[in-house]
Amino acid sequence: MKDIVFCSNNCFVLYSAAVQAKNSENKESAPSLPQSPMKERPPKAFHQYSNNISTLDVHCLPQLQEKVSPPSSPPIMFPPAFEAAKVEAKPDELKVTVKLKPRLKAIHSSLDDCRPPSKKWKGMKWKKWSIQIVIPKGSFKPPCEEEIDEFLKKLGTTLKPDPVPKDYRKCCFCHEEGDGLTDGPARLLNLDLDLWVHLNCALWSTEVYETQAGALINVELALRRGLQMKCMFCHKMGATSGCHRLRCTNIYHFTCAIKAQCMFFKDKTMLCPMHKPKGTHEQELSYFAVFRRVYVQRDEVRQIASIVQRGERDHTFRVGSLIFHAVGQLLPQQMQAFHSSKALFPVGYEASRLYWSMRYANRRCRYLCSIEEKDGLPLFVIKVVEQGHEDLVLTDTTPK
Q1: Which residues pair with 97 in a beta bridge?
Q2: Residue 225's closest CA among 245, 208, 209?
Q3: Structural domains in the chain, sorted by start
Q4: What does the pLDDT look like over 121-174, one tens digit per residue?
Q5: Which strand (E) or helix (H) includes residue 20?
Q6: What is the distance between the alpha carbons of residues 175 and 10, in angstroms, rounded to a whole number?
Q7: What pairs with residue 196 in β-bridges?
Q8: How far, CA to CA in Å, does 189 sit from each of 22, 45, 164?
């Protein structure tokens, strides 16, 4: 028989055949007990664990079955980002790709997992999401303005305003229509009745200078001289910007001087391409935008007199909400009665004004004002013209 070595609490006990024989002799010498009518149960294995004891009755050592751990679930495999983006690009579509970045999941095994537990907040686990918008290159064509207008007309959601009328005002210097670029000829300024000049075209003329208040002086003088001067670039009349070099006769329009690559300086001087220095200059001016208040200085009394003296008027003279129609006239015998210390009352004067209505609080109407003669004295007449009502005529002997 083989010997069995059992370990209990760092004590080794040798169980041999001699011990087994001794135990059997003790059993034979003991008096036999009456057998019970119950069936004999099979003897159970008796285990005794003690220190420094040699009598250990061990009939069989039960073999413990190893617990087989359940098969671990395979990790979830996600496609990489570049594979997720490989989707067939349709021509007029905008693709949106959503990528899920999974967290590393612990795989159950017999070994202890040393990784820290996942972050939790109120019992919920967080997942990281990232959205990637992929716009195909060269395949997506944005709609033009005409297609957008047609689409809005079909929907009926917006009202398209009327197109802005073309600006037919022409500069007297460079002969270009409409306002110019801010970093160029700039906006149009009124010189006289239906006469316009670009701000920089007038400002960079040789004779013109600017006052501290923003008034441009000698614009009319520069315009008269420009009618006889030909531009070196476009060979048209109206050139007023000359080269500052002594005895140089090259003269340009302001816009032509920019095209000819003339050099402008901060002291309002200019050099033609033949006399400009090579390379850059400290005082060179490369930006021509003017955001300050600038206007053309003119004789307004003479201008109004020229408007009044014209027989057939093709233009409308307007001051605020007052539209001027006719100035009228006064005879020598009427001078004494048709004036006051502040104003003249010429017979035949006619003007119209847009003002608040007398019938409605939130509307305006037209008031036609005129001066007539009655019994050698002026008679002031106001005709109220309002849509939906008959004309109302009011008269009095004083303008108030």
Answers
A1: 132
A2: 208
A3: 188-296 (3.30.40.10), 316-396 (3.30.160.360)
A4: 566 666 777 888 776 666 667 888 888 888 887 887 666 666 778 888 899 999
A5: helix 17-29
A6: 117
A7: 171, 190
A8: 135, 120, 20
